[in-house]
Automatic annotation (TrEMBL):
<protein>
    <submittedName>
        <fullName>DUF3784 domain-containing protein</fullName>
    </submittedName>
</protein>
<keyword id="KW-1133">Transmembrane helix</keyword>
<feature type="transmembrane region" description="Helical">
    <location>
        <begin position="77"/>
        <end position="96"/>
    </location>
</feature>
<feature type="transmembrane region" description="Helical">
    <location>
        <begin position="108"/>
        <end position="130"/>
    </location>
</feature>
<dbReference type="Pfam" id="PF10882">
    <property type="entry name" value="bPH_5"/>
</dbReference>
<keyword id="KW-0812">Transmembrane</keyword>
<dbReference type="InterPro" id="IPR017259">
    <property type="entry name" value="UCP037672"/>
</dbReference>
<keyword id="KW-0472">Membrane</keyword>
<dbReference type="Pfam" id="PF12650">
    <property type="entry name" value="DUF3784"/>
</dbReference>
<dbReference type="InterPro" id="IPR027783">
    <property type="entry name" value="Bacterial_PH-related"/>
</dbReference>
<feature type="domain" description="Bacterial Pleckstrin homology">
    <location>
        <begin position="134"/>
        <end position="220"/>
    </location>
</feature>
<feature type="transmembrane region" description="Helical">
    <location>
        <begin position="51"/>
        <end position="70"/>
    </location>
</feature>
Amino acid sequence: MLFFVVLGTAVLFLLLGWGVRKGAYWLISGYANRSKEEQEQLLKAGYPQKIGSLLIATAVGMIVLLPLLFTSFTYKVELIFGFMIVFLLGGIIYLSRYEIPQKRKRSYVISIGIAIVTFSFLAVLMFFGYEKTELILRKDSFEITGMYGKEIPYEDIRSVELIDELPEVTFRVNGFAMSDIAKGKFKVTGHGTSLLFIQKAKPPYLLIETDDGDIFINSQHPNQTQAWERKLIERIE
């Protein structure tokens, strides 16, 4: 699935870049609204063609990195999409030099601003996504902390068990997923829409079946996951 997402994104960039290089300049945001004079200046400076080349180069880079998906390298997804974002945003900033002189400074400010906002958003997302998840036992309920965390009454628990292998996760409904972590709502084979708080490839996993859906959670340390199971069973027995 991920292979086709990456490949599809690369093919889309290739088609857009090819289209721009062949004269479909309307594909460039805001270009069609420019005056004829400004469009001619941009064409003379080679701005549209360079935008097309940037899209094609981004696609080629992603395709070159595509074989990483078939390796055991942990951060392959982050590397591929990180390359895409950095290369595109960096390229757009660089190509501001080919803007018409009276709008060049504004173009630099806007493109750098977009880059700052994008990287700031990603940094915050990564910070909270990788924040340590804890399972805290309270008097009448337990709480899962961090992103997508929630508090669940013990009376809503149907069963608690340790499993050594996760069922197949087929679709992300609303969650955070990287190469080594998954948090949020995902479609899980045999369990429907479930809450995941998973460190991938770190068995065992704790399966908590509740009235509101199933929860899969584990710690980086197997003994901690096992302790969560024992304590939860003690509370519901």
